[in-house]
Amino acid sequence: MESLVKKFTQSSLALPLVALAVLLLFNAFFVDDFFKIEVMENGNLYGRPIDILYRASSLIILALGMTFVIATGGIDISVGAVVAISSATCCVMLGGNISGIPEHPFFVAILASLCVGIVAGIWNGTLVAKLKIQAMVATLILMTAGRGIAQLMTDGQIITVYYKPFAYIGGNIPGVMLPTAMIIALAMVILVLFINKRTSIGLMIQSVGINANAARYAGIKVTAVLFAVYIFSGFCAGTAGLIEGSLIRAADANNAGLNMEMDAILAVTLGGTLMVGGRYYIGGTIIGAITIQTLTTTMYAIGVSSDRLPAVKAIVILLIIVFQSEKFKEMYRNYKLKRLDTQLSGKKEVSNA
């Protein structure tokens, strides 16, 4: 039993699982019918657990891309703005016709939205990998300009899409119990796991994150790896943009993807991936994203307003940074050593007596 506890505490999944368990336990006692799941008349599942997984879908997708970026020692704070641009692209192409007839084919609008995310990733990758600009500064450019671009695309208006199939992306396909967003998120998880387990890309990303110069001497094309992870992050943001636009069936350049980059970074770090790069944990990222969404849902359930929620998340970020710091780890190791010395001293005194 003691060995199992030791293995669990040393696991990268320990922190996100404990955080999620604490939140679920809190909800079990203080939020009425939190775990209640019902089947609606249209056959769809309804309940807070389903809502958490549903709303976490976009965050999981964003966090998957962010995991690879952070694993290389970089960061992408532009993903929230890219979500807004992607959403605006699809909605503008489908148009706001009350008749519900799209101005462009639905498939073309989806493809264009995803391509916008890829182009954003190419832009970030060029600045970081090719021009060697610090990742925070490079992605800050698109973070700042992105919402302006989305505003220009929509003329500063909220464009409502009346084309019914568009609602299926963020809602439910008729006859399917689970929301489409959850299915898309699951497909992205499977894709990332395949890349991570069946190819050498995961090892290359870790090598670049640990020591880029050593990876270069080992024959790894560091520039190509950095380029690829930012493109994938942009693709994930484009996919999340489709979901976010479909949720409200409109393009809202001001609010689409707002602060989602912070939630994605928080999910990745909560999942055990260090901000300095190196080893990363896909399972931890997924659990971290679900934990962040559970925290958001819990805060709303107990009456915390949306303007106070960032303060709660800031405290969580602070705690994670403290727990991951070398100083804290050193203090914890010293505490364990002192405790072990005390136990050994106690056993010696008993044996001498």
TrEMBL record:
Q: What is its main location?
A: membrane
Check the record and name the Pfam families matching this protein: BPD_transp_2
- Identify one Gene Ontology CC term for this UniProt entry: plasma membrane
Arranged from A to Z, the UniProt key words for this protein are: Cell membrane, Membrane, Sugar transport, Transmembrane, Transmembrane helix, Transport
**InterPro entries registered for this protein in UniProt:** ABC_transp_permease
The keyword Repressor is annotated on this UniProt entry: no
The molecular function GO annotations come to: transmembrane transporter activity
Q: Which domain of life is it from?
A: Bacteria
What is the topology of this protein in the membrane according to its UniProt annotation?
Answer: Multi-pass membrane protein
Q: Where can this protein be found?
A: Cell inner membrane
The regions listed as transmembrane in this protein's record are 52-70, 77-98, 104-123, 135-153, 173-195
Asked whether the keyword Nucleus is assigned, the reply is: no
Family statement: Belongs to the binding-protein-dependent transport system permease family. AraH/RbsC subfamily.
Q: What is this protein called?
A: Simple sugar transport system permease protein
